[in-house]
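USER:
Class, as today's exercise, take the chain set out below, and explain how the chain folds.
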Amino acid sequence: MTNETMTTDRVPVDVAVGVLVKRDADGREGDFLLTSRPEGKVYAGYWEYPGGKLEAGESVEQALRRELQEELGITIGAAHPWKVEVMDYPHARVRLHFCKVYDWQGEFEMREAQQMAWQGLPVTVRPVLPGTIPVLDWFAAERGFQGATHRG
């Protein structure tokens, strides 16, 4: 069995991902939030969009609401389903359910000792988690951005 076969045979873990986006006065999308992966987790220090695994019986929005409260201390408004991407990592295959979030309440608290950064294109934080890169490309396409979306 090849590595490729082993990778694609793994059952993906469903993960809800929050793409928190600020809007300007005209409603246009602006900066988005990235957080670093905390120490002790796989890919510690890499930058990603916040979120986490769905628990049994949870919808994507329910999981996202719970995860952002647990990790960041905020309560989100509506989660707008955006895109789904499957990523193969050495440790797991994950199905990432990306939702845009425009409204939230509360002060950001980094409850897992992670960092946060509001970013535009190109992002300046690094390294960027591989599962984050497609989202940067989607933003680039939506916004007509040309060039590298992140630093290597």
